[in-house]
Automatic annotation (TrEMBL):
It comes from Flavobacterium sediminis. This is NAD(P)-dependent oxidoreductase. InterPro entries: NAD(P)-bd_dom, NAD(P)-bd_dom_sf, NmrA-type_oxidoreductase. Coiled coil: none annotated. SUPFAM superfamilies: NAD(P)-binding Rossmann-fold domains.
């Protein structure tokens, strides 16, 4: 068995490779990356793999039995990029594609959802056996600048009472690995989210307990929250995007209580407090 991982030098891909190695299944692991030199520390075979160079992809996929297609990071280009990979996988004879999609893609209001949904449709009509791994929110998405939040005693946001069912990036990596090394997942769509659900006010309370200092959550109108993000150095476009995810949070886009993630990985997902302690 040969397993290929796209984006293997990214945060998620790196974890997936390491966890595959730890499982010691005897499978050959291939890192599919833009720059193989950056994959040297992974300790596996690395092949050049650029979503934007479709004419080269099939050659790099030769001999790959199962492929983890980690979604590209270039918003607006991802459908075309993913289509390139899927077509190359057909040509190369890949037997299974597992794709990292977005939680409740078919109903989500998040700007990210559309490209994920289009990719899912491409997979379903490709003729290649597939698994759709709809990733929820990474808890790590909230830890940037955490020390400053603690220092100022205020967590700003625009998510209202929206519920968040996040999990650690490592939890999602374990799920991705599970579908690659076990059988019976073909044609399935997994809604993956954390066991624990919280609002940003709950997040601030947990952060207070972990940091030993009171942190309060202050809910702002979305435009005001975007301005706060710009004031701390984020570009306007990224600030608007992040503020938009808070609007989606209030609508319930980041909530799921099916516990499919913990069932798939065979253990509870990582508690919020654990991630916050590590981040601090």
């Amino acid at each position: 068995m040969t397993i290929g991982i796209t984006g293997a030098t990214g945060q998620l891909g790196h974890l997936v490779v390491q966890k595959l190695k730890e499982r010691n299944t005897g499978a050959t692991i291939v890192a599919l990356v833009r720059d193989p030199k950056k994959a040297a520390d992974l300790g596996v075979e690395a092949r050049v793999f650029d979503y934007n160079q479709p004419e080269t992809l099939a050659e790099s996929l030769k001999g790959i039995d199962k492929l983890l297609l980690i979604s590209g990071s270039e918003i607006g280009k991802r459908v075309e990029q993913h289509a390139n990979v899927i077509e190359a996988a057909k040509e190369a004879g890949v037997k299974l594609i597992a794709y990292t999609s977005l939680l409740h893609t078919d109903t989500s209001s998040l700007v990210l959802a559309g490209e994920h949904l289009e990719t899912e449709k491409l997979l379903k009509t490709s003729g290649i056996p597939y698994v759709i791994l709809r990733h929820g929110w990474y808890t790590e998405n909230y830890v940037g600048g955490l020390s400053d939040v603690v220092a100022h005693g205020t967590l700003y946001g625009s998510a209202g009472e929206g519920k968040i069912s996040s999990a650690s990036r490592a939890d999602f990596a374990d799920a991705d690995v599970a579908v690659l090394v076990t059988e019976g997942h073909e044609g399935k769509t997994y809604e993956l989210a954390g066991d624990e659900t919280y609002t940003l006010a709950d997040f601030a309370k947990t952060l207070s307990e972990v940091a030993g200092k009171e942190v309060k959550y202050q809910n702002l109108p979305v435009d005001d929250y975007a301005k706060v993000l710009v004031s701390v150095g984020l570009p306007e476009g990224i600030a608007q995007f992040l503020a938009g995810t808070h609007v989606g949070t209030e609508k319930g886009d980041l909530f799921d209580d099916s516990k499919e993630l913990s069932k798939l990985i065979g253990r509870p997902t990582t508690p919020l407090a654990t991630v916050l302690k590590a981040a601090l």
